[in-house]
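User: Structure please.
Assistant: Input sequence and predicted structure:
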Amino acid sequence: VQVVNKIIELAGEAFAKAEDETVFTADGSATYHSLTGLLNDAGVSTHTLADGSTGFGDLGYDDLIDMRSAVAPMARGVRSAYVFHHDFEDVFDKMEDGNGTKIFGAGQAQQRIERIRGRQVEYTEAMPDLAASAADTAFGLFGDFSYVTVGFQRDLQATLLREATIQDVDDSTLIHLAAQDAQALRFTALWDVKFGLTGAFSKVATPAT
């Protein structure tokens, strides 16, 4: 029972990440059922870091402000938010002003940075982490996410399989459940994503060089 409960918990986390990916990083391929996320949407305005700043960690405080300026004025209000990978908590902690003073304050260094200039900061593993740093690559978002609609045709469901043939995820061998007196859980969910106004969002990217 404890193993099944843990499997269900992990499945829920995996589907939550998959939902985030369809909103943020989906590339329009069959893997994402032709959905394109905001980071890959050509209609979303892009703020590019200064030339030579080809690492995600080169993000500066002024870049965060410029991301906000890049969206339509009605999308800059209190409903707007930044979205980054969890790795960027460390980037924010290290940001300094011209005098070498921590922008978010020394007292916040051990705390989660949850707001920037009054705007919420959200973290998700679906966004690119620092290890994915590369030139000409988008890695962060800002905008009013009330303009994102996620429609669920079917919530997460689990089906117990006793007679199917499934593929082992470790070595791709086939497992014949009935012949091996085994059981499997199959998790499914159906949803779609639509953006009401791409002008309500901006992304930050590294330069080509």
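The first helix runs from residue 2 to 24.
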